[in-house]
Amino acid sequence: MRRTFILCNLAMLLLSLILLMLGCQPQATTDESGIESMLEALQHNELGIQLFKEGQYDEAITEFNKAIELDPKLAMAYTNRGSAYHEKGELDKAIGDFYIAIELAPELAEAYSNRAYAYHEKGELDKAIADCDKAIELDPELVEAYSNRGRAYLVKHMFDKAIADCSKAIELNPELAMAYNNRGIAYIKTGETDKAMADFTKAIELDPQLVLAYANRALTYTLLGMDTEAKQDIEHAVALGFDRATLEQEVEQLKQMR
Question: Could you say which of 125, 159, 232, 233 is the most buried, measured as most Cβ atoms within 10 Å of its Cβ?
């Protein structure tokens, strides 16, 4: 499943750093060496982001560690390191980093949204929803928070709420293929098959590598008795890595229910 992490970068701190260097924050007492450490920490954070995007998570963590060593209060570095730990499947470490980021910067909506995603992976759905609620309170335009909360509602079988959140995510980012996929699942559960089909098709149009959308559309075609089309989507899903036996078993179960 696709990740929906947000990676903070230099832009989030540039304004405050410039104000600090200009002396516009008289209560702060940061000498030149301190400013140099902050700038170097930001550089390591930025390098870590690039490594993360390249899938080099261990190397990214090393750079985030360096950023934190230079500036232990750099909340974005903890948020980013938490995202890297999440990608490595180290959810407890990820959640720990998100906690620290939130302690350092309680207004950092991205940290709440990322922690919500980690909680979701651990099956702690109520905690995930609570964190998404907080993220949305802090940033009503944070698309990932709506997407993450929609996924949690979907798993909790709260389909109307899942549809509403996925729809909001799509409104904020019409290119978010996974939101269409997840809304399609919710539509299937509410019996709105035509809407589900349209959403799975849109998800595939936006991301032709989204294996779940092919699998879900294959199941939808099966529900509608369109077995030829279902077979084509099964082949697409299998080519992208979906387990053939699992998918074909689900298809056969649906055929027996028609």
Answer: 233
Contact 68, 77 (CB under 8 A): yes
Closest CA to 33 of 7, 83, 71, 63: 71
CB atoms within 10 A of CB 103: 12
Continuous H helices in 156-226: 159-172, 177-189, 193-206, 211-223
Summarize pLDDT for 221-236 with one digit per residue, the tens: 999 999 999 999 999 9
pLDDT digits (tens, 9 = 90+) for 38-65: 889 999 999 999 999 999 999 999 999 9
Handedness of CA 94, 164, 220, 144 (dihedral sign): negative
| DSSP string covering 169-180 | HHHH-TT-HHHH
Residue with tokens 């549809």: 163
- As a whole number of angstroms, the distance between CA 67 and CA 46 comes to 9
Give the largest CA-CA distance in the chain.
73
- Which distant-in-sequence residues (6+ apart) come within 8 Å of 59 by Cβ? 51
Cβ(84)–Cβ(7) under 8 Å?
A: no
Please, what are the domains in the chain?
Answer: 33-106 (1.25.40.10), 193-258 (1.25.40)
Strands (DSSP E) contained in 60-165 are none
Model-level pTM? 0.84
How far is residue 142's CA from residue 111's CA, in Å, rounded to a whole number? 11
Residue 44 burial (10 A CB sphere; 0-12, 13-18, 19+): buried
* Residues in the chain, overall count: 258
Q: Which amino acid is at 2?
A: R
Q: Fill in the amino acid letter for 120.
A: H
